[in-house]
């Protein structure tokens, strides 16, 4: 990420470019499908507990795209559960015991 800062040195002023390297964190990604493998629209809730000293609880919410794909970013190391709520119904399904950095998580609605 590039950032510009106005810096004053005595009576002189200059614009200095500085570059920041940001840690994007870990992510969990996957898709939501029916029992035949067809993609489904769903609301995704990722909850978990970080592996930090305070065992901080976290929660992130996203929606699947038209192909049932989802991606939750900005996570730290910890244990997570992914819960999918099927759009327009009360049906839901869950996968537990995930760590940040997991890909290919599949949530299947029977």
Brief digest:
By secondary structure, this protein is mostly beta strands. The protein has no helices and nine strands.
H and E order: EEEEEEEEE
Q: Can you summarize the main beta sheet?
A: 4 strands, antiparallel
Relative helix content:
under 10%
| Poorly predicted ranges | none
Terminal CA distance reads 44 Å
Question: Strand-residue fraction?
Answer: over 45%
How confident is the prediction overall: mean pLDDT? Answer: 85
Total number of beta strands: 9
Number of helical regions: 0
Gyration radius, rounded = 20 Å
Molecular structure report:
This protein has 110 residues and is an all-beta fold. 0% of the residues lie in helices and 63% in strands. It contains no helices and nine strands. The strands form three sheets. Strands 5-4-7-8 form a four-stranded antiparallel sheet, with no helix packed on it. The chain has a three-stranded mixed sheet with strand order 6-3-9, with no helix packed on it. Strands 1-2 form a two-stranded antiparallel ribbon. The radius of gyration is 20 Å and the shape is elongated. The N and C termini lie far apart (44 Å).
List the helices and strands and how they pair.
Layout: E1 2-9, E2 12-19, E3 26-34, E4 42-50, E5 57-63, E6 69-75, E7 78-86, E8 92-98, E9 105-109
Parallel strand pairs: 3-9
Antiparallel strand pairs: 1-2, 3-6, 4-5, 4-7, 7-8
Name a few traits of the molecule:
single chain; 110 residues; mainly beta; 3-stranded mixed sheet; 9 strands
């Amino acid at each position: 990420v590039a950032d510009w800062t106005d810096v004053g040195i005595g009576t002189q002023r200059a614009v200095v470019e500085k570059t920041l390297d940001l840690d994007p964190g870990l992510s969990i990604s996957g898709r939501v499908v029916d029992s035949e493998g067809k993609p489904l629209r769903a609301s995704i809730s990722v909850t978990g507990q970080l592996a930090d000293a305070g065992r901080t609880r976290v929660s992130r919410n996203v929606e699947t795209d038209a192909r049932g794909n989802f991606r939750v970013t900005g996570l730290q190391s910890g244990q997570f559960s992914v819960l999918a709520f099927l759009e327009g119904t009360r049906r839901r399904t869950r996968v537990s015991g995930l760590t940040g950095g997991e890909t290919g998580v599949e949530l299947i609605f029977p």
